[in-house]
């Protein structure tokens, strides 16, 4: 099961894309119950594509909160077009998901 949930909505000739990613987003300065540092674990790169064309490539860091939510407003994007979201984190984990605009 993917860690990414994508929703889209057509509004006045534009497409609203909402993305929720399940990820711990630890910055490396928090401590656990045994007072040990929790290692850094955060998304470094987020990519949004429309019909295999990259529209947004975000370089991110540890300051983003757990389970991040992103929203984009795209010019165009027709019913039936495919939106793809992919992320990669600092530990080498990756995930991707596709969504068809309805």
Features:
three-stranded antiparallel β-sheet; 102 residues; four-stranded antiparallel β-sheet; 52% strand; mainly beta; elongated; Immunoglobulin-like
Detailed description of the structure:
The protein is mainly β and 102 residues long. The chain has a single domain, classed as Immunoglobulin-like (Sandwich). It is built from no helices and seven strands. The strands form two sheets. A four-stranded antiparallel beta sheet has the order 4-3-6-7, with no helix packed on it. Strands 1-2-5 form a three-stranded antiparallel beta sheet, with no helix packed on it. A hairpin with a 2-residue loop joins strand 3 and strand 4. The radius of gyration is 16 Å and the shape is elongated. The two termini are 22 Å apart. The model has no long low-confidence stretch (mean pLDDT 95).
User: What summary fits the major beta sheet?
Assistant: 4 strands, antiparallel
- CATH hierarchy, class: Mainly Beta
Integer tally of domains: 1
As a percent range, the share of helical residues equals under 10%
CATH architecture: Sandwich
Number of strands: 7
Mean residue pLDDT: 95
